Amino acid sequence: FPFFSPPFPVSGVSVCLQTGGWTDESSYEAGEGAQRGRVNRHSLLPRLFDGCFFYLLGSFQKPPKSDLLQLLKEGGGQILTRQPKPDSDVTQTLNAAAYHARPGSDQALCTQYIIYDPQGSYRPPRLRLGKVWSAPSSWLLDCITSFQLLPVPEMVPSA
């Protein structure tokens, strides 16, 4: 699952090249996310974003929207073509659950995310509206790096 393992630092690649073979990558990984991802895959558990639906709002610079879409799809996320409406009957009756959310957290019931570029001009009026939450694209990358659904960060007021 190449999109869900942190990239190896050059030092890890250098060791492989010097020895002419594979080396244990765990000593070159940042954090515990890659190990969690391997255990998850080996245990045949759902992918990181299984049970989650995503709408990417606006344009994205770094990473580009196409890369974010690929990461979400590889991680089991479903892509929405329309912005979800929090007050919609369809949204409120959706019974999906986010498998990798902390059990008992309110995030376990949130299955629809509006993702925005934190470097862009859009700021959501509220982060949480029923089962629809807004999150910056950096949150997605942090979730992937740690291989867990992290709490959505509080908004920083616009300057």
Distance between the termini: 39 Å
Shape: globular
Total separate domains: 2
Helicity level, as a percent range?
A: 25-40%
Name the poorly predicted regions: 1-9
Portion of residues in beta strands equals 5-15%
Question: Under the CATH scheme, which class of the largest domain?
Answer: Alpha Beta
Helix/strand structural class? alpha/beta
How are the strands of the largest sheet arranged? 2-1-3-5-4
CATH architecture assignment of the largest domain:
3-Layer(aba) Sandwich
Topology:
Blueprint: H1 10-19, H2 33-42, E1 53-56, H3 65-74, E2 78-79, H4 89-93, E3 112-116, E4 128-129, E5 132-136, H5 137-146
Parallel strand pairs: 1-2, 1-3, 3-5
Antiparallel strand pairs: 4-5
Description:
The structure is a single chain. The chain is of the alpha/beta class. The chain has 2 domains: 2-42, no CATH class; 53-146, Rossmann fold, CATH 3.40.50. Helix content is 28%, strand content 11%. The chain is built from 5 helices and 5 strands; from the N terminus they run H-H-E-H-E-H-E-E-E-H. It has a 5-stranded mixed beta sheet. The radius of gyration is 17 Å and the shape is globular. The N and C termini lie far apart (39 Å).
